């Protein structure tokens, strides 16, 4: 079914372990090797007591381990042999520098990219599965390009993970949505196709959504932003998440029918929210209505429940946006069926969308 014969996953953690176990279960003809720099972690994956507990995981691992699922510290061999490599390493919050305390630290992602650059000898599809800031794929690509070797070529894909701890296997086996972002070139599309073919072993094609890398990365961050807003009771979480998007290079058009421009700027430049108020100011523009604010944008993030937002002419808004046009309904107040019929990619939290093509409720309290 697919020309990918061998998969390697860098990072045998909460995401890499269960995801690759399910891929091995559903794709018996593909050899899946999960590698980690931690010898202890790999030893646990190879033991009777797995390093994480997830309902259903033990059974999947028992069935596949030693057949087409392997856990190893031999990173070089696994990377060298793989046609497709998932980067599924941890992305802790930065403890220094720009974005300290807020932005994700890419040091492990970058070290994984360096490992690939060092040992790869043929063509590789590199898939970022870790939750990364927007444009992380570019930084992975820069590392790979800077270490270019003859006869080696790379395609980078973004395939964010939305599983939640506690329901990881259920979320993976019955995923009602998979998101894959790739480069807008024939080679990029071919790489997307290869990853689609893997998921198509058990996920209906209409539930596999393909887009560009940037939109895919943004989707995950926006889903997390809603989550932070929902579970936090302090005043600034939304502003903090907005500043995180700004740190990553996003440009924001803001419209709020009830909050004055000066108040919005004051909230977004508060010292508890950003240490770079000038950067924030230079990247936001405040608009007088929703139509001008959404014109020529990639995504709408709905953060407040004003009735006005329910009654907008979304057909007109869609026509004026860049495509694919995303709408993140952080308040769950919009008619999602209608928006999907118009053409929007709709994302929300805490509720399943009805339509089959895009039916997954993104996010849960434990998602990262
Ligand atoms: N845990 C969740 O529920 C969840 C859900 C969705 C997305 N995510 C995201 O997925 C990513 C992975 O999360 P996780 O929970 O699996 O992390 P984790 O900490 O459980 O596992 C990461 C593993 O990567 C290994 N690692 C780091 N650098 C390495 C390198 N260069 N070579 C080999 N191994 C290396 C670490 O030793 C560790 O075992 C993060 O970006 C996270 O934000 C997590």
Automatic annotation (TrEMBL):
Residues bound to NAD(+) are 36, 41, 91, 131, 165
Give the E.C. number(s).
1.1.1.22
Question: Single GO cellular component annotation?
Answer: nucleus
List the catalytic activities from the record.
Answer: UDP-alpha-D-glucose + 2 NAD(+) + H2O = UDP-alpha-D-glucuronate + 2 NADH + 3 H(+)
| Keyword list, A-Z | NAD, Oxidoreductase
GO MF term list: NAD binding; UDP-glucose 6-dehydrogenase activity
Q: Pfam families from the xrefs?
A: UDPG_MGDP_dh_C, UDPG_MGDP_dh_N
Q: Which residues form the UDP-glucose/GDP-mannose dehydrogenase C-terminal domain?
A: 244-336
**An example Gene Ontology biological process:** polysaccharide biosynthetic process
Sorted alphabetically, which InterPro entries does this protein's record hold? NAD(P)-bd_dom_sf, UDP-Glc/GDP-Man, UDP-Glc/GDP-Man_DH_C, UDP-Glc/GDP-Man_DH_C_sf, UDP-Glc/GDP-Man_DH_N, UDPglc_DH_bac, UDPglc_DH_euk
Family from the record: Belongs to the UDP-glucose/GDP-mannose dehydrogenase family.
Residue intervals passing through the bilayer: none
Which residues take part in binding substrate? 162-165, 220
Q: What does this protein do?
A: Involved in the biosynthesis of glycosaminoglycans; hyaluronan, chondroitin sulfate, and heparan sulfate.
User: What gene name is given for the protein in this entry?
Assistant: LOC105427071
- This chain belongs to the protein called UDP-glucose 6-dehydrogenase
């Amino acid at each position: 079914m697919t020309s990918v014969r061998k998969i390697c996953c860098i990072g045998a953690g909460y995401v890499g372990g269960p995801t690759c176990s399910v891929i091995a279960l559903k794709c018996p003809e593909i050899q899946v090797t999960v590698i980690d720099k931690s010898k202890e972690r790999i030893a646990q994956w190879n033991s009777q007591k797995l390093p994480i507990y997830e309902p259903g995981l033990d059974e999947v691992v028992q069935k596949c381990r030693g057949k087409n699922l392997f856990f190893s510290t031999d990173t070089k061999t696994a990377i060298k042999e793989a046609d497709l490599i998932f980067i599924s390493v941890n992305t802790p919050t930065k403890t220094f520098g720009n974005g300290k305390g807020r932005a994700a630290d890419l040091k492990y992602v970058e070290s994984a990219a360096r490992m690939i650059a060092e040992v790869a000898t043929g063509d590789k599809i590199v898939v970022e599965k870790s939750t990364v800031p927007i444009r992380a794929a570019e930084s992975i690509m820069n590392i790979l390009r800077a270490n270019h070797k003859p006869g080696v070529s790379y395609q980078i894909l973004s395939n964010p993970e939305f599983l939640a701890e506690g329901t990881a296997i259920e979320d993976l086996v019955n995923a009602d949505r998979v998101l894959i972002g790739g480069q807008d070139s024939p080679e990029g599309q071919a790489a997307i196709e290869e990853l689609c073919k893997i998921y198509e072993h058990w996920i209906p094609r209409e539930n596999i959504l393909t887009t560009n890398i940037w939109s895919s990365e943004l989707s995950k961050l926006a889903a997390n932003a809603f989550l932070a807003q929902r579970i936090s009771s302090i005043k600034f979480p939304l502003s903090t998440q907005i500043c995180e998007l700004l740190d990553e290079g996003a440009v924001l058009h803001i419209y709020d029918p009830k909050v004055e421009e000066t108040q919005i700027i004051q909230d977004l430049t508060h010292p508890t929210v950003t240490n770079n108020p000038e950067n924030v100011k230079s990247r936001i523009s405040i608009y007088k209505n929703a139509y001008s604010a959404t014109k020529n944008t990639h995504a709408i993030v709905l953060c407040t429940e004003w009735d006005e937002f329910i009654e907008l002419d979304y057909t007109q808004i869609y026509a004026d946006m860049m495509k694919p046009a995303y709408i993140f309904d952080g308040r769950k107040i919009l008619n999602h069926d209608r928006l999907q019929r118009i053409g929007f990619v709709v994302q929300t939290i805490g509720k399943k969308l009805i339509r089959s093509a895009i039916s997954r409720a993104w996010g849960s309290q434990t998602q990262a």
